[in-house]
Amino acid sequence: MKRFLITLFSTMILLTLSTPSFAQTKLEKRYAYTLKHLKLDKATEAKFAPVLKAYLTERKQAGDIYDDLKKKFKAAEKAGTLTDAQATQLLNAKLDSEGKELIVMRKYLAEFKKVLPAKKIYYAFDYANDKISKIDGKEE
């Protein structure tokens, strides 16, 4: 019995210590993925990394209104009981979020230009917008 409890306790500790790698947020994954694929030299990466993190954070905040509303109506959407009023709210929130995301993108385009050439900026936005399934390696 003691042996079983020691093994169980040890396993729980190991799982707890390894959890942070599994609990990495989407924003952190997107950040690491973008930096990895841009293949910047160390000096450029040091200048660009904080700007990228700020961009990703602001872009996420712009989309949060729609994401929160979508979560709120998820059950109704799955059940097929979404009302016209709810659908209208979702559409308006989606358009508002996309508009705010575009404003954030234009703002950070100017910031990115201070650090990167246009070609790298194009790829930075492209990588930052990849689906999370692609970032996780589940999609090609």
In short:
The chain is mainly α. The chain has helices spanning 2-22, 26-38, 42-72, 74-79, 84-113, 118-128, 132-135.
Q: What is the domain total for the residues?
A: 1
Quickly count the helices. 7
Which stretches are poorly predicted, pLDDT < 50 over at least 5 residues? 14-23
Sheet having the most strands: none
State Rg. Answer: 20 Å
* Fraction of helical residues: over 70%
Q: How much β-strand is present in the residues?
A: under 5%
Provide mean pLDDT, rounded. Answer: 86
According to DSSP, the number of beta strands is 0
The arrangement of helices and strands along the chain is HHHHHHH
Characterize the overall form: flat
End-to-end separation in angstroms reads: 48 Å
- The secondary-structure class comes to mainly alpha
Keywords:
single chain; 140 residues; mainly alpha; 0% strand
Question: How does this structure look, described?
Answer:
- This protein is an all-alpha fold and 140 residues long.
- The protein has one domain.
- 83% of the residues lie in helices and 0% in strands.
- The protein contains 7 helices and no strands.
- The chain has helices at 2-22, 26-38, 42-72, 74-79, 84-113, 118-128, 132-135.
- α2 runs antiparallel to α3, α2 (26-38) packs antiparallel against α6 and α3 packs antiparallel against α5.
- It is flat.
- It starts with a helix and ends in a 5-residue tail after the last helix.
